[in-house]
Amino acid sequence: MDHAQSALHLDRVSRRLGGRLIVEDLDLSLARGSVLGLLGVNGAGKSTTLRMVAGLLAPSAGHVRVGGIDIHAEPAIGRREIGYLPEEPPLYGELTVDEYLDFCARLHGLAGSDARGHVDRAIERCELGTMRKRLCGLLSKGFRQRVGIAQAIVHEPALIVLDEPASGLDPVQAMRLRELIASLRASHAVILSTHVLSDVLACCNEVAILHRGRLRHSGSLSALDSAGATRVRVERLLAPSDWLALAPVAEASAIDANTWRIVVREGETTGTLAAAVSERGFGLRELRADKSALEEIFVSIAAENGAIGAAA
User: Fold this and answer.
1) Residue 124: which residues within 8 A CB-CB, separation 6 or more?
2) What's the distance, Cα to Cα, between the start and end of the chain in Å?
3) pTM value > 0.85
């Protein structure tokens, strides 16, 4: 990848806090049109990495570049080209969704009809039309997260940074949020921090695994997908022909009435499979690797030095 043209490039990025090295020599690139899942157990350095990417923390060493420009040397670039959602959405409970997003648009330098157009597009993309006059303080957890994503995309940045966006959601809310995140890939580069494998499998096409502040694995999910099949549970009763009518599906075999073992075609990912299942209205309830190479890699890395037990 041409680093000058990448949406995001981390060049030997490190960060010390209290004399302790939290992130060490991190090299990572991400192109527009990709969703990167940043995996790691609690304490792996994910949130610190995301705060550096979002421009909230300066690296102790190295460079964070967006479109080839160091965002800490030129912070105005970061404010314009990056949208950030921390784990707890920064909402103002006394404002309606409409008022809050208009406020966020104006913080990014948008005004008048231009700001209104951006707000309307963000509300449409995040399916918040019925909530736009609702006070932010009265929203459910799922809608709070959607409003959080809306504020991150309202200025239409090149890069969207999401820190544990599905945390605390029920399964249906989490599924719908993953669908939304996967859809952002069409217009942005997205980096998603999580410790949940199903989040990555459902909406990402690339993955990076951090452990004790160091990058231990990175690559495309399509290469890992080829190592096994995907187990999908849906609401509708389907026949194999229903599955084979979906463009990403190469093979489909029933495990029980609502659960199927699906093999995707070469070049497809679990993210495109999830999008196709949702678009066809099958009623996606669960999607996970049936024989996951990613799970094996993640568990192997996370188990080093008792990290899984320490994070539990």
Assistant:
1) none
2) 37
3) no
